[in-house]
Amino acid sequence: MINAKYKKKYEDLIAVCRKNIKQLNENLIYRAYEFSWEAHKTNIRASGEPYFDHPYSVAMILASEISLDDISIAAALLHDVVEDTEYEIKDIKAEFGDKVAEIVDGVTKIKDIPHNIEKSTVDGYRKLLLSMVDDIRVILIKFADRLHNMRTLEYLSPEKQIRMAKETLDIYTPLAHRFGLANIRWELEDLAFKYTNRKIYEEIARNLNFKRGLREKYIGEFIKPVMERLNEENFKVEVYGRAKHIYSIYNKMVKRNVPFDEMFDLFAIRIIIDEPSSSSACYTVYSIVSEIYNPIPERFKDYIVRPKKNGYQSLHTVVIGIGGKMVEVQIRTREMHDIAEKGVAAHWKYKENIQEFAKEMEEWVKWVREFIDQIGDDESSQFLESFKLNLFQDEIYVFTPKGDLKVLPKGATPVDFAFEVHSEVGYKCIGAKVNGKIVTLDTPLSSGDQVEIITSKNQKPNKDWELFVVTSKAKSHIRRWLNEEKRLLVVLGRELWEKKLKKSKIKLSDDEYAKLLHNLKMENSSKFFYTIGTGEVDLELLDIKEKIATQKLVDGKLDPAKMDEQKFLNYVEEARKSSPGILIEGRADDLLYNYAKCCNPIPGDDVYGFVTLGEGIKIHRKSCKNILNIVERAITDTELKNRILEITWPGNGQSDFLAGITIIGKDRNNILHDIAHSITTFNNTIIKSVNFDTKDALFNGTIVLYVRNLENLNRLIERLRKINGLTKVQRIE
Fold this sequence. Notes:
Among the domains are: 152 residues, Hypothetical protein af1432 (Orthogonal Bundle); 144 residues, 2-Layer Sandwich (Beta Polymerase, domain 2); 64 residues, no CATH class; 68 residues, no CATH class; 75 residues, ACT domain (Alpha-Beta Plaits), CATH 3.30.70.260. Helix content is 52%, strand content 17%. It contains 30 helices and 23 strands. The strands form six sheets. Strands 1, 2, 3, 4, 5 and 6 form a six-stranded mixed sheet that branches. Strand 5 and strand 6 form a beta hairpin. Helix 2 packs parallel to helix 4, helix 8 runs antiparallel to helix 18 and helix 10 crosses helix 19. About 4% of the residues have low confidence.
């Protein structure tokens, strides 16, 4: 039997339900209350209180702050029964029916999300989202459950406090934002911030409390003339000032890089219109406020004409208030306010019938399905990135050429827009016009832009797109396409490799194959096959036997030829670092590019660029056999021809490029002086480094220097060859 204390608690709960819930089955709620109390009556929480206080508090939060329906209240009372007592889902189903049992089962399944950023974590988060597809009330109960847990977090260990607070910021507050549960989101953020950064939290809280009296006095003075005018115009309104929550203030301090004392917009004035309640009334009230206080036009935001994705509607403006202070004013109807505070749950209150509400719920479920599909293949770090990006970002409103509205995150580009229109439009996107003008694909869009996507059937997604797109839809489609393209190239490379072995009648042991990969600097077989598939490794030129030959030691040391090779590679790396970039067909470009290993080009060489699939532009010397083979094939292959680019090196008229010279000759007095003098007196050439070895009256040396171009280098080499005693002078190749 329920004791007197908990009978009183039930009466409190049912009173709130009667006030906030449209259609109420009190018998269902009483039976759920009694069942939960009996199931939990011997359980104790970490705080020392009866465990039943937790499901009761969750149900009370749901009734007072989310208030959806009686089924969700009953499920909230029962949500821990299966997890923490001997009862099973079949018992819930027998007692309360299928719907309540399904919701309790959904909450139970997502009870213990893993807490380390690994694949198991991602599976837990994905499980949470998938549970919403069956019934959106599951996640609403989880919000209430998490809110009560955060309110009582002080009773847990410091490690659990930090873990739960971080998870709340990562997962629950973005979801609460997407569902429009503003009050719950703000409280969750502040509670989580309190445990993740207590010192700053308490400092901001003290400052807010210290200035509370002055703030309230200012708000009263600001509101007075506004209320007088609204009363004259026969508006029934509620006007009040709302202090911004602590986590929001902290984020603005970080973003603006200012201390608390320099934060002036610490509160917002809210005007809620009861009568006449219409969107047009909001604009009338806005005009009245603007007559009293000067508005700042660029700070006006109309979320009534263009609501946020979570259904939020309101007019926002910033005006110059008393004493020249900037004050944010929010204007909305009572219905808009309820939806802003309670989000998806508030829609229930304003729907004429259950069928209409069910239809709206299906729209939310559709969004969840699309969201899971977009980020379903992501790894853990990418999942969290996509999750927050999609749920927790400012929005912009852009239009198709036909005037259709597309809502995108702030910072979105034409490529994001293209994928929002359709995945095929995204894949084939080669350019864009914004407001009639051609722009680059990485151009950030702004609200009001009209965007036209230019497509080509020959276009394919570019790996560089991943660097600037912001929507999870675009990122996941690009990533998926590139992964599939890479997989196909690996398959192609494997087939070509097997044909090569069969044709050459070569059989490699595991050790020989491992040595081959090592000598080719390949991390694994997939990388090897991929480079074959892209053409980076030309099997016609690959000498397998030479690559698996044992490296010979001379006098216990590595073969000098190998040492020379390493010196050369060090020089090549140094030469490339000296260049500011490349010019593609005469213009600067920051596209992804790298150097082909088959010919080791360096700045100053005559080169081609070849657009690979997935690895950007490969730069080859024009004399490279691989690129010459491609150029020859391109004569009859238009698509291949379009992937060959003219590449030059940016010059500024000064000594731009590093070049290396090998010198061999007879050792004699002043030979080094003569060489250095000959170099430095030729067009003020600068020597970067000199390395000479002498043995048996002969010397072998390398000189690294800066030259303007290849022609100057050739003339300098001819000049050096005239020095007495030098037998060989040539560019390092």
